[in-house]
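Internal tracking record. Fields below are filled automatically when a chain is submitted to the structure queue. Please do not edit lines marked as system-generated. If the sequence contains nonstandard residues, flag them in the REMARKS field before resubmitting.
Queue: standard
Priority: normal
Entity type: single polypeptide chain
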Amino acid sequence: MGVSKEKHSFEYEEYDSIEDLPLSDALLVKEARKATKLAYAPYSNFLVGAYAELNSGKFAAGSNQENASYPVGICAERVLLASVAQLFPNEPIKTIAISYHNLNGTSNVPLSPCGMCRQALQEYESRVNQPIRLLLCGMEGKVLVIKQSSLLLPFSFNGDALK
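SYSTEM-GENERATED OUTPUT FOLLOWS
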């Protein structure tokens, strides 16, 4: 029988706090934390902010926007990607910092994008043919650095399936 076992894994960096990051990354994390203040999350009280540096040196922000009709809401990462696509067409994103503020609890462990956002990040990487580096964090505590967002979705659905 033609059966084989495969293994998928990837490496990431873990920093104890924002103070341990290179200055440019620390600034992105600070801005992502600020972006949580722009979130509209009256139902979950879970405020998410995303802040990106583009290849051109420009910056963009996004925050989650909830709705009483839950499926209508949108995550911070997809707000950010849509904004970048509209304001800076086909501009590659170098790095995105993602943070959250949980008003009902703690915000001290890194946050990872949901599955829908992982798919959207992977699509944007493919669209502009460049990896997007991620800085994942809360309002305090550890920061994870992932060199390419598509590593979070190893078996992603992509346009090749539609050909």
